[in-house]
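Following up on my earlier thread - several people asked me to post the actual chain instead of describing it. Fair enough. Here it is, all 221 residues.
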Amino acid sequence: MAENVSFVPYQFERFPEDEMLRRSIDFLERMSNRRTVREFSDEPIPSEILDNAIATAGTAPSGANKQPWHFCVITDPEIKKKIREAAETEEKENYERRYSEEMKKDLSKFETNFVKEYLTTAPALIVVFRESYKVVDGVRYKNYYVNESVGIATGMMIAALHNAGLATLTHTPNPMRFLNDILNRPQNETPIVLMPIGYPAEGAKVPDINRKPLDEIMSRF
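Reply from S.P.:
Thanks for posting it. Predicted structure:
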C-alpha cells in the first residue's frame, strides 16, 4: 500500500512581526473564552459549520500521514436517544461501581452525574473514532502514533467550533463500544470522545474555574 510522494513548493505566507503578535493575542483571547458547556439550546445549527470544523480537523498532522480518524455527525433524534440511553447506562455503572472515591470527589465540585440530558438536547453530536489500523481488500495495514494524531485533530476541531461561535463538551463515557454498534463503525475503529455541539442554553452557567498561569505550564531553556 506504500505510495510514492512527490514534493511541491510550500505556499507559506509570512507576516510582519507586529501582525504575528496581534494574531497570536487575538486567538489567545478568543480561545480563553472557551468553556465546557453542559446546558445546550436545541436551536438548530448550520451543518456547513460542522463540515468546516471537521475539515479543519482533517488538516491535522498525523504519523506517516495515515490520518487515522473518522468523525460521525449525528443529528437524528432517534439515534441521539439511543446514544444517550447507552451512555447513561455506562455512566451509571461508572458512578456506582467503577470510579474511585478520589475521582468521584474530584468530580463532585462540578455537580456531574450519570444523567446526560445534553446528548438529546444539543442539536448535533460528533463522535471521534481513532482508526487503530487500516483494512484494505482484506489486508491489514499499520497506522502510527494514532492516539497522538487523533488527539491533535480533535483539539483543532474544538478550536474551530469555538472560533465559529459554537459551544462543545468533551464527553467520554467508558467503555464506548456501544457507539460502534449504533453507528455501524468497524472494529478497527475505537470511539474516543462523544461531543455535543450547539449554542449554550439561555442562562447557561459554567463552573467558576481558573486556568494554570503560563509560568506553571511552560519552561524555557
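The helical segments are 17-32, 47-57, 77-98, 101-108, 118-121, 146-164, 178-183, 214-217. That should answer part of your original question.
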